[in-house]
Design brief:
With 448 residues, this protein is α+β, with helices and mostly antiparallel strands. The protein contains 14 helices and 17 strands. It binds flavin-adenine dinucleotide. The site of flavin-adenine dinucleotide has 36 residues, from helix 1 and helix 11.
Amino acid sequence: MLDLVAPIHILGGGLAGSEAAWQIATAGFDCVLFEMRPRQPTPAHKTDQLAELVCSNSLKSEAENSAPWLLKEELRKLDSLLLRVAREARVPGGQALTVDREVFAREVSRAIEDHPRIELRREEVRSIAEDAITIVATGPLTSGALAEDIGRITGAERLFFYDSISPIVEAESIDPGVAFRASRYGKSMDGTDDYLNCPLDRDQYERFVDAILAAEAVPAHIPEDTARFFEACLPIEELARRGRETLRFGPMKPMGLEDPRTGRRPYAVVQLRQENLRADSFNLVGFQNHMRFPEQARVFRMIPGLERAEFLRYGQIHRNTFINAPTLLTNTLQLRTNPRILFAGQISGVEGYVESIATGLIAGRHAAELASDAETRAFPRATAIGSLCAFVSGADARNYQPANITFDLLPALDEPARLRFRRDKKARHAEICRRALESLDEYRAIYA
Ligand SMILES: Cc1cc2nc3c(=O)[nH]c(=O)nc-3n(C[C@H](O)[C@H](O)[C@H](O)COP(=O)(O)OP(=O)(O)OC[C@H]3O[C@@H](n4cnc5c(N)ncnc54)[C@H](O)[C@@H]3O)c2cc1C
């Protein structure tokens, strides 16, 4: 009976595509996994193996009750192939799950190649067959021809080729005695004051510009990462290099703002915008940059009001093909205009190895549900996996930036629990993890 079902297509044999293929095959469905390497290389991959880790060999923290741990724990509960292989390929790396990249890719490739329900085709896909159930998982370096076809299906203006990420800080680490709420010229989008503003006087501004100019940069992953910038999303250090006043006339302009403590316009300001769908966090508007992460922490803590800032994400700019997922995808990663097409991995608008594996697993499971004519059942919102899907399908589409898993993507605790754990962040995070895993167990008991 099942053998009569047409095979599911998976485009891209990276982290997401390999996990998706495994999930589909173990659910009892045939699939074809298309991988263009080695015939057609990418600027970052060095081998012909599936699931190649292109840069670091770390799958992030295994510290219990951290957000990256929670995501991995959920994947393990859902029988992720890549997490199983990662455990076998583990090498010492402190609290992080670091792997021997060769063993990892080799063992994932072996598992995929040996599975009787997976056919691996080494060819570049140039267009999406809209009649087959298809998972697009071609990653941040999707080949040009396919990117064009994805643009045709999704609308070219909803496909991006660069990621311009500004840093995000925890709300409770911002000093409320310094940062003030206000919108420029009092013009608020929704009747509240939209931004938190950190004011700088002349000396503070000059020292800040000096620190940016002296900060150490991240070495580029691929040459394109430093060669080309869009004028609209220049890194702040490039703005500082163009002139000492450029930042003050750009993202740090103080026009239309008055510091309530002095009654005067500050010399410069850093504006922080509350993140939609991210509880309790703010992003530093227009602060995309290429500085090393420790340098970002050091330099941005010079901003008045951010002296004790806790960073949930650092700024980055890099080559990344991704869709404007909130306008296109459901929380089951299906295309709204054609639910037989699903997106997974970095191209679906998540960031990071484990997030890519997670969305591969989700898309694989939903594709198997589609193949068996069942309804696709979204993962619970309380889980890390469900929260990634909620972010991808429901974040603010106007300023969409791919996300790593962090606690601010998970739903905030209800008021009594929030009050109970108000002063104990560790206990708060442990409670969020407990609820997530419990809710995943309930989901598995019904649908697994
Ligand atoms: C240079 C670089 C460095 C990165 N470093 C890190 C890091 O250190 N840590 C981290 O967590 N994340 C990192 N990322 C982000 C991200 O986690 C990885 O890119 C991750 O591999 C994404 O998984 P994926 O499955 O979406 O894509 P990939 O793993 O890239 O897999 C996509 C696959 O699709 C294939 N493909 C592309 N187009 C086609 C086509 N038309 N037909 C058939 N096959 C095709 C590619 O060859 C590739 O094998 C990095 C990204 C880049 C670009």
